[in-house]
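for the record, two folds in this file. i put them one after another cuz i was lazy. first one right below, seq on top, structure tokens after. the second one comes after a little note so u can tell where it starts
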Amino acid sequence: MDLVEFLAFVAGCRNLEHLWKAYQEKMAEYGFDRVLYGYTRHKVANSLGDPDDFLILSNHGQAYMEGFIRSGLYFHAPMVRWALENEGACSWSHIQALSDTGALDERALQVIEFNRKMAMTAGYTISFFSFSPRFKGAVSLAAADMTQDQVDALWLAHGSDIELINNIVHLKILTLPYVQPNRSLTNRQREALQWVGDGKTTQDIATIMDLTTATIEKHLRLAREALAVDTSAQAVLKAAMSNQIYQMES
């Protein structure tokens, strides 16, 4: 697909899996064979929130994801730190510039060494605009078969198109349902939360769903547990943020 065809596909896509597959293929056309997209709605001053609440999409292998994400290395990565403080696109030559000035601490150097062992040495990072300080999204584009100088030359020629593609895909992802494995809701839990969001009482919901109040309370309790929150109002908000409720049927 050319650029216009691809963007038309993105605009009409209703499935995150199909979108992600097409996006990977499009980035590979430019030489970026490994991509790592991350988004959180729970960022605070010294944390990106619970990793279980992140939306992470990647075609990296398990070893990289275990080492970079699950071990917590990501939080000290120079390009992640850049993305938290900036918007737009940045060459990974930024890392060398920081190193040359002695601006990297021991934890950042550990990340660089880990990435070097994983052949993650050439690429670009795009940090997306966020209208709230609690929200942040970014994508790492790595090119295994290019040097950083080659990637920078590629970006000079095609960077505006690549950045446009990534911004449009990011905005599309935010509209699509996604469910973390340990944050999923059953259909009954989802329906009960929707009625809570509409201002209905437990008795109202029991009548609407033709269930007992005890059963409704159980669905709401399990929904709170699945979403790791304390109140049903918080559960409604968190489920809505991940597009798990108030969604049109496919």
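(here's the note) second protein begins now
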Amino acid sequence: MRTICLFFQIHQPFRLRRYRFFDIGTEHYYYDDYSNESTLHRAAEKSYIHANKILLETINKHKDKFKVAFSISGTALDQFELYAPEVLESFQKLAATGQVEFLCETDSHSLVSLSNPEEFEKQVNAHRFKINKVFGQNPVVFSNTELIYSDQIGAQIADMGFEGMVTEGAKQILGWKSPNYLYCSAINPKLKLLLRNFKLSDDISFRFSNQNWSEYPLTTEKFASWLNTIDKKEETINIFINYESFGGYQTRQSGIFEFFKYLPETIFKLTNYTFSTPTEIIRQQQPIAAVSIPSPISWVDEERDITAWLGNDLQKEAFTKLYRLLDYIKECNDPKLLVDWKYLQSSDHFYYMSTKFFSDRPAHSYANPYGSPYDAFINYMNVLNDFSMRVKKATISNGEDSVPIVEDLLRLLDEKDSLLAQYQTQVSKESLNVEKKPSAKSKKETDKKLQPVLVTKNNKKK
């Protein structure tokens, strides 16, 4: 049986407000409420609500023949509850059809799988509990943040009781092999792996409205014809897409919603493919081989690695300092601090610090509120320094921090001067290629193939 697994990722971070050095020790609220609410409402109006309506109509029309899956981060679910309960209700209606599967991920959409196994398991269990509470499902398939996967991560996920995991069908791990099969973990073969077909997925999410693309315009008939050219032995086509591709990255005017609406019907009419959920595939098919992935991969950038988040010294410094607080967090029982701990771990904060200037995944620059990686780093570190002092003060056994706050602030001021010089030099060096104007020919070629990683978003405070 040849089948399509249609899977959508939804994530919204809690964006940070402009937090100055002199706010440290005096202001403990870190979030840009206006930006978070307005961004979510915009995504809901442009994408989520209309796309969910199309999905519900398609499911009702085709009954049990059409199925999809979602991975929704815990921070996105929190924002639905805060700012757009009608969006959450629309997802619950989809869940009630029995044709929509909700996968588990880290509750914070964090990079903790690269840092601490114990904290990783804690976040996974928190998200698993939330999916059960909100949608009444017990997930058996896991989708890590940005599809990050390695052999060690897969082994831990298997130990947690998951039957399957989704990740990128990256060329560096597959070589000549096709992603259109079910695979398994090299360490624990009980864990089945669904590998994303990045070409077909990006044809929809990335290239759909690109008029310079040789296949433009993409129609449902053309897409179905591509499916028919795939070797009949290849059983599973995994199309994994950011949900904001519908109406967000690809605007309504591009025709993306019409494509989305009529694609299932065209596939049923012109091909012999069915639609299946991830759980159905891993339980009905047998893996053809084990895949060994010793170093972490992801679905981001041409390299499909983790350098988008941990590729420079700014990111590594922030990441290391954040997870140094784990020993204190384990002793913390303050609800406000634990919420801040959750939201400060979102991978977006580290992505904003990226000094990679070009990417083939412009969706990830879609909501960057900073003018430069340097600005993102300084803002995050100011917040993290304040949070660090609060956590330490709350968890020291005698209730008093061993270092007075005034002395702590003086130390941070000295550190800041040093970091300012160090990282300004680094960012300036890594910015040279961007400041140099390319030739007309190279600029034309680059514009066709590449997109900027960091684009300032016009998010204004009230």
